[in-house]
Amino acid sequence: MNQRINKHPIIDIPLRQKIKFFYNGKEFFGFEGETIASALHAAGITKLSESIKHHRPRGFYCAIGNCSSCFMRVDGKPNVKTCVEPLRENMVVENQEGRGSII
Amino acid sequence: MVSNAEIVIIGGGISGCAIAYNLAKKGMKNIVLLEKDYIASGATGRCGAGIRQQWAAEMNCQVAKLSREFFETAEETLGYDHDIEFKQKGYLILAATEEEDKQSKENVALQNSLGIDSRYISLEEAKKIVPILNTTDFISATYCKDDGHLNPWHTTLAFAKAAERLGVKIYTHTEVTGIDHQNEKIIGVQSNKGYIQTDKVVNAAGGHAQVIGEMAGIELPVYSERRQILVTEPVAPILDPMVISFSKDIYCQQVPHGAFIMGRGGENEPRDLKHSTSWDFLEKMTETALSILPDLKNTRVLRQWSGMYNFSPDKQPIYGDVPELKGLYLAIGFSGHGFMFGPATGLLMAEFILGEKTTIPIDKLHISRFEKGELIEEASVV
User: Residue B119 forms beta bridges with which residues?
Assistant: First the structure.
């Protein structure tokens, strides 16, 4: 399921540098200049985290770094706001369980 | 609104709600509580809600101990249907100077003599209790495992709801505008919602205690000073006890939900009764917190707010009546510790008002102590 828009009647979508990253141990690709959550969403990963008490799936929601719905562990750091964090080469992105541990 | 009452309690914080509950439980009827905003909207709901028995002044120790014992079974006693989030994982008090180290030893000796299970410990032991602690700036610590912290809103609501079930009438968004008195006796209370005839008034107005005093024509020896506090985003649990340092001017805890809540005093805090906040606090607070608990650098501050410390000259509460005005009772001047003393305030004030023998003697906390000049100032305050 690729949700990426490659062609648009009004906006030009330039070709961008492809970037490799890891999601839960598997190799994924995104594009330079996009956020981690964008890259995951485009690749069909829509569940980014879980609700704390009932473990319900949480995905792309506010997309401006406010809502905590996209918190993931990135390069070992918990609670990263993946909806606003730019994707970088070889990033290690993982789902986190519960509240992230800061130690 | 009712037009007369046996007693009118001013203030819907923990003190007022606990006094109302205890009076009703002891059988008093027609009790009215007036709150200018909503329950726990003042200092109570704004505080760190820590409870400690590790004090330097004897009365503070005793009042705190009585409260701690209540908190341990508060949910059942008050019949509350929600968790009041009592995290009883202790208080770790760090000593940074020789003077503080000496004070710590004296405090522990006094506390132990009063049946409080506190200990003077080494930094190694402190590090075992709080593995993320940076001990660099410290000499020693004291620890009491029975201390802890609660959720101040739920705890206060638990008292308020229990009081209401016993018949107490609580009027929120009702501001007292005048205390009516004649021939040195209380005769009524004027509020923005109406007049209530009564011959007994309890001033449990927290940050506004002196304002209520003025309305009654009594100059109370208390003033309110702003104190700020912040909360971080919630993270997995890594801190058991409340950590405090008097000389570093910090208290810091991790609530069960996972957020860190921390506060400090600071210099030149305004006394204008405004709930303002400052950038300076945010800088100094985070700097101090990171020097003691460096791992907190990986969490984000969500917001900061402020509340009032109602200071008395010796930083101990003022309990009892007022010689110049019959029918006026005081539960004021908690100096930042009104929440943790709440259950004791409720019990002791109810006993005093009903003319019973109080569970612990409170004559040393009477307002007349300031005239007599028999002051023992509490040394251990953040």
Answer: B143
